Amino acid sequence: MAPRLPGWTPLSLLLAAAGVLHLVKPDPFASIVPSQLGDPVPWVYASGVAEIACAAGLAVARTRRFAGLATAALFVAVFPANVQMAVTAVRTDASTLTQVIALARLPLQVPLVFWALAVRRRAAGAQRV
Q: What is the pTM of this model?
């Protein structure tokens, strides 16, 4: 049997914290927005707002099912920024620790997507009761 992923509360808190960080300290996030998207600042703010919206949606039982799907989609949507961060870390001879963290983040998106989808499934099951 597969291990049970944590529930919606820690995922919601993670998203809320990340969203606030995007709005309060956008510079580190702006540096990883792929250059093909143009000015990174609107993308950083938009992703921060999206993270906060997903966090709020997960916190409300009536919207949790949709928010789980939206959260999974958000994790997929920001994956190019994680790729950009890894590419930049390797190309700029960043510290070994920075490179390891940047590269380790890539496969970590997968369990985040599964976690969001698990929250969606649990919410769907709870709505049937």
A: 0.87
